[in-house]
């Protein structure tokens, strides 16, 4: 059963990964023209941001959910999965909501395929009309009324709580914002922390934004470090994903870690949250400030955008190392790695 669930999850992740990499690198390329250049309509920077942020990243969660459902129920599960994933994305449930939508749609479609009986002359309608329609209705209603409402209420309460914290709790605030930034990697908790930091920029309060961006770089950087520290525990494709993840992390694109988090959430998320909390707490402790709401290390090219640059970099490096080391220790060896090693040993013996 567990192997089946893992296989379905990996199908979704493998189809989502090209979107993460292509979209993230397009966003990073837009920053070459300036951190705010994409806000100018008609420019190449704006086009790159549209391609990466509005197109590739918008498809990321729906494709994850769609292909999880496809793996479970074949073609009848694809439409309900894609639609459930889009509702998760629009409702702010992030990739975690997408995983829920994918499994919900897939197993609902599979159940309907097995239980619905139609006359022989109408049986051809079952995989293209009856099952997709019913599974889509069920999945969509659950995502809207069961998942969407609680997520929205939780986010409102969380934002109110953050606003109530005073500067006397600066380090604690940094730790909390850092952990939130690394919890769901672009999902609602991440967005609540980011929105809180951006909102403070208008009142010339720049410390929380520095903590948020430092922590937001940690997950993707940390996964890249983990694949380098424990190469034997990762497949070749995972090691390649780790390299791409590291590059995206430098650009403050936390989503670079999503393929790893989707594959192994119970180990990846605690690792990223620990490193992110450390980075955020250290940034606030050192009194680092940041005047730009995005850009990753590109902001260092903007004069006076970062206060206490050395300590800011130290915060990021410390968080990255903690995340990378923690996950490299927690992660078990991949089954695929073991199979590759067994194949290699068999080839050597044959020779």
TrEMBL record:
Predominant cellular place of this UniProt entry's protein: membrane
PROSITE patterns (UniProt xref): PTS_EIIC_TYPE_2
Entry's localization field: Cell inner membrane
GO molecular function: carbohydrate:proton symporter activity; protein-N(PI)-phosphohistidine-sugar phosphotransferase activity; protein-phosphocysteine-sugar phosphotransferase activity
UniProt source species: Rouxiella badensis
UniProt-recorded name of the protein: PTS fructose transporter subunit IIBC
Topology in membrane: Multi-pass membrane protein
The PTS EIIC type-2 domain, residue ranges: 5-340
Listed Pfam families: PTS_EIIC
Keyword field: Cell membrane, Membrane, Phosphotransferase system, Sugar transport, Transmembrane, Transmembrane helix, Transport
GO cellular component, one term: plasma membrane
Residue spans crossing the bilayer: 16-35, 47-70, 82-107, 128-147, 153-177, 212-230, 242-262, 282-302, 309-330
GO BP field: phosphoenolpyruvate-dependent sugar phosphotransferase system
């Amino acid at each position: 059963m567990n192997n089946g669930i893992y296989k379905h999850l990996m199908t979704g992740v493998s189809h989502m990964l090209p979107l993460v990499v292509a979209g993230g690198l397009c966003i990073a390329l837009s920053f070459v023209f300036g951190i705010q250049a994409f806000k100018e309509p008609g420019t190449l920077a704006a086009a790159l941001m549209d391609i990466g942020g509005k197109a590739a990243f918008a498809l990321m969660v729906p494709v994850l959910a769609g292909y999880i459902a496809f793996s479970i129920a074949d073609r009848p599960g694809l439409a309900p999965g894609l639609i459930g994933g889009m509702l998760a994305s629009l409702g702010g449930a992030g990739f975690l909501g997408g995983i829920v939508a994918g499994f919900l749609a897939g197993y609902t479609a599979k159940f309907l395929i097995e239980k619905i009986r139609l006359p022989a002359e109408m049986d051809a309608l079952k995989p293209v009309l009856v099952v997709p329609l019913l599974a889509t209705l069920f999945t969509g209603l659950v995502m809207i009324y069961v998942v969407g409402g609680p997520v929205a209420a939780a986010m409102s309460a969380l934002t109110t709580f953050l606003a109530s914290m005073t500067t006397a709790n600066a380090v604690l605030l940094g730790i909390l914002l850092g952990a939130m930034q690394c919890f769901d990697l672009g999902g609602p908790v991440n967005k609540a922390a980011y929105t809180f930091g951006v909102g403070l920029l208008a009142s010339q309060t720049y410390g929380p934004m520095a903590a948020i961006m430092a922590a937001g770089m940690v997950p993707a950087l940390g996964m890249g470090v983990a694949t380098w520290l424990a190469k034997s525990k990762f497949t070749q494709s995972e090691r390649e994903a780790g390299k791409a993840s590291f590059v995206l992390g430098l650009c403050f694109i936390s989503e670079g870690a999503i393929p790893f988090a989707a594959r192994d959430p119970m180990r990846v998320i605690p690792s990223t949250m620990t490193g992110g909390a450390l980075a955020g707490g250290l940034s606030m402790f050192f009194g680092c400030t940041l005047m730009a709401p995005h850009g990753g290390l590109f902001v260092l090219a903007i004069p006076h955008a970062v206060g206490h640059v050395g300590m800011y970099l130290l915060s990021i490096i410390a968080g990255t190392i903690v995340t990378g080391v923690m996950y490299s220790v927690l992660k078990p060896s991949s089954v695929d790695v073991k199979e590759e090693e067994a194949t290699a040993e068999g080839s050597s013996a044959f020779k």
